[in-house]
Design goal:
Length: 475
């Protein structure tokens, strides 16, 4: 009798579990497999590519709702690589990568006249040869949101864990992409996030506890990597002729413990750092050759003592938001176009954004409740190298936020032998930068004339770089 009761109870629990599981799968499928978007306000005619947006609930009770944009490859989506792209900040929306860097759209850079900004095609979009998920992460970024105050808090490791949950659930709604070669990509502060997430995916594959992800490697642009990143800003400035030989030597001598004011009691070091800050105050840090806006706010002209906020550069879009006088004077002013566009009700409706879940859209949200709990991602690079994953690390060589010298430094720390010595890589008969390849399947490349988000400045060159690397060709 007891045996029969237990048997029936077990069967009942199994049926309940199966029913819940099927319901959960249906919900994930419904949330993450919405119909493609055919039209977008501001773009003339139907979209010439497949765009899908949606939310995926993660964390306990799905209290974190992560928003994403998915663009299918225009070549062969069933076989082409699949990339999840995470923009930096932390707190910068991945739509910036979609519409200013590697995605299929650009904003037409014309004077803002009060009407909706116009969208045009990016002829050098990486989605010509790859499927890309542009994820708004961590929670609070872009249109991603938390249902509770605790769910709205994040850390480096939590953001990675939730991105992994997102990915597992996304594949439930998109099972046709499970066998595609998979890569994790990002830039700027994602130099911390991408290696951690890549290792989490690899660990899950090895444990066999989750569905298999066909992980092949990762790619990073101008990546924040370790605490000494900022120590290379001054050598970069000296090489660019921003500071004199004398000031450079004085900084080296007086700031022996590093170029951080809080790391030294030396009055001479503080004096030299103040002189350096003044000399670079009129520069656009993302690309030092670019013009700076007249209203470029002082809080963006960070001193070296600001280790975290230097990677956040979106708050200034709130400055003179209705002004149109300087849209074409500098690149930074052009960033406001996406803000005008996103805060239009018809745009949000077209993108299927849930009403009332987020307030005014910001390209980079600099007031996130976020804890930095990983300061150095080099150990993750080393682990991934040992496992044989390929990687592409590229640097715009005119970036003063994460200088290319910093990236070269931590790559040297990995201590892998060189298999393709330093040489130029060429696009359309011209030097596009310099590259070196290592025995750990890591390729490093500079992008000549590019800034902090290299594809934004050199789209054709970066597309060529990506196409060669993803196809296992030398740059």
């Amino acid at each position: 009798m007891v045996k029969n009761v237990c048997h029936h109870l077990h069967l009942l629990l199994l049926l309940v579990f199966v029913g819940i599981s099927q319901y959960w799968v249906r919900q994930v499928h419904a949330d993450s497999h919405s119909p493609p978007i055919k039209f977008l306000p501001g773009f003339p005619g139907p979209l010439p590519f497949h765009l899908q947006t949606g939310y995926v609930g993660v964390d306990e009770n799905e209290d974190v709702q992560l928003f994403y944009y998915f663009v299918k490859s225009e070549r062969n989506p069933t076989e082409d690589p699949l990339i999840i792209w995470l923009s930096g900040g932390p707190g910068c929306s991945s739509f910036f990568a979609l519409s200013y860097e590697i995605g299929p759209l650009y904003f037409k850079k014309v004077d803002y006249n009060g009407t909706l900004p116009t969208l045009v095609r990016n002829l050098n979009s990486w989605t010509k040869i790859a499927n890309i998920i542009f994820l708004d992460s961590p929670v609070g970024t872009g249109f991603s949101y938390g249902r509770t105050s605790s769910a709205s808090h994040s850390t480096d490791t939590k953001a990675c864990a939730l991105a992994l949950q997102f990915l597992r659930k996304w594949f439930i709604g998109h099972p046709e992409f499970r066998s595609n070669p998979f890569y994790v990509g990002g830039d700027s502060y994602s130099g911390i996030i991408v290696p951690i997430l890549t290792q989490m995916i690899s660990n899950g594959n090895e444990a066999g506890l989750e569905q298999f992800v066909n992980l092949k490697g990762y790619l990073l642009g101008n990546p924040k990597t370790f605490p000494a990143d900022q120590d290379f800003v001054i050598p970069f400035a000296h090489g660019m002729g921003i500071i004199s030989d004398e000031l450079y030597e004085s900084l080296k001598q007086s700031c022996r413990s590093g170029y951080e004011k809080q790391d030294t009691d030396s009055l001479e070091c503080s004096r030299c750092l103040d002189a350096f800050d003044q000399l670079r105050s009129g520069l656009f840090y993302e690309q030092v050759l670019e013009n700076i806006c007249d209203e470029y706010p002082p809080e963006l002209r960070r001193s070296l003592s600001d280790k975290k906020g230097v990677f956040m550069h979106g708050s200034a879009e709130r400055t003179n938001i209705k002004s149109s006088s300087s849209v074409l004077k500098c690149r930074f002013a052009g960033y406001r176009l996406c803000r005008y566009w996103f805060n239009n009700d018809n745009v949000r409706k077209a993108l299927r954004v849930r009403k009332g879940t987020t307030g005014e859209w910001e390209r980079c949200r600099d007031a996130l409740p976020y804890e930095y709990d990983v300061s150095d991602s080099r150990v993750y690079h080393a682990n991934l190298s040992r496992k044989g994953y390929k990687s592409l690390i590229y640097s715009g060589d005119h970036d003063m936020i994460v200088p290319f010298q910093s990236t070269q430094s931590w790559i040297r720390d990995l201590n892998y032998s060189i298999v393709d010595e330093w040489r130029p890589w060429i696009v359309q008969g011209q030097y596009a930068g310099y590259t070196r390849a290592y025995s750990n399947k890591m390729t490093f490349a500079t992008v000549k004339g590019a800034g902090h988000t290299a594809p934004e400045y050199k789209p054709a060159e970066c597309y060529a770089m990506f196409e060669r690397w993803i196809s296992d060709k030398p740059l």
